[in-house]
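Appendix B, example 12.
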Amino acid sequence: MEFKRLLEQIDYLKIKGVAPKEINKVTDSSKDVEKSSLFICVNGCNVKGIDFIREAKQRGCSVIVSQEEVETDLCLVLVEDVKRAVSQIAKAFYGNPQEDLRVVGVVGTNGKTTVCHVLSKMLSSGGYEVGITGTIGTYYKGKQYDTKLTTPGCLNLYKLIREMADDGVEVLVMEVSAHAIDQRRIEGISFHSLIFTNCTEDHLDYFEDFERYKLTKKSVFTSGVSKYMIVNSDDQAGREILSTADGKIITYGIENPADVFAIDVNESACGIEYVINLCDAIYDIKSNLIGRVNVYNTLACSACSAAFGINIHTIAKSLLNIPPVEGRAEPIASVRGCQVFIDYAHTPDGLRQTLTSMKKICKGRLFCLFGCGGNREKQKRSVMGKISGSIADFTVITDDNPRYEDECAIIKQIEEGVMSVTHNYITIKDRRSAIQYALDKVGKNDVLLIAGKGAEKYQEILGERRYFSDKDEVLSYLSLTEA
């Protein structure tokens, strides 16, 4: 791209040094710099972007963009706000790709992944070519990639949108994390629709208190950012959004008045059934997805699909055939008549919701196996222990992603919560051994929920990601016991 053309589309204070004619790449990682690259000095949590200018120069960088004036013999573009500059540079370099497709953002503590995947199926049934990016990967046109972040960094996001648009994708459905909002990774994106699922305590190690976390999620629902705002009216934070937001708002819920709502809800081991009122259009809904939480998720998807012009018959038909989302209340096996599920529930509310749904479909004993991540919110550990102890008939406490913490210390904190309500539990530090123990213990009509990791295929231990899959462990157990 001509450097002159790029400059015309960004706000900058001044330029020092000799400007190149062409820029072949833009990046905020010095390790990705190539010849004729533009390197943006973005600060991380523990590092400063300007500290990597030397490495960027060695790799062939032509232009430095910085919020700080630094001494360099490269061309320096000084900007007032480097985060805004990142989005402006990305938009310019990738040809404002969001104008070539429509973007749907899903915001909330729980349900983002399920909403993205269910919505993609609905939109596909309505004739749209859909791409997804989120916690369990990026999918479009038969391609699949793992993702390190729930929401890509700003430069990578614009690049991904460009690639999808060029490949014929018409709608991108993406998870929008609170970290992404706070770190301005979605700056400059114009959404067709923004969906708000819920807001409960999570990531307080980063946000420090719930109020800041909630305000961060709410902050994206501002005028002009999205054509449609689709908001859960049963959630407290959702109602706060409704009290301040303007524009085209579609509400959904079960308990409170809403544009899209469900009545006559029935939950079973086969899935959910309810009658939907979709902006005064009435229809019977059936889905293989399990639990009341998926009533909310499918209502959100139905509301968004209606905003895309998809009729209620197509919406209802698509829900009949949608399989469980990987790692989200996913049934993976039957062991001696016990149904085994894996789920990503890793927050107090998420665990409560999932266990409550499992209790409704369980005809025998409900087992819950889970742990908590290390170097994250310590305050939620005993709370989650108490939730499991209160709802499940038996709890197996084990490790999750201990990171740099002692697994035994984490388990002890969870145990304190369980002990406050029941003595029906066991602690087993090694997750593989814990899964094997639980599978040995279950019987006919029981339900075993293995929670916390869902579709994750690793454990983080002392800075290393070691391969581990809850699903693989269950299937391996079955192969050995049935041999």
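The radius of gyration is 24 Å. Residues 97-320 form a domain with the UDP-N-acetylmuramoyl-L-alanine:D-glutamate ligase fold (CATH 3.40.1190.10).
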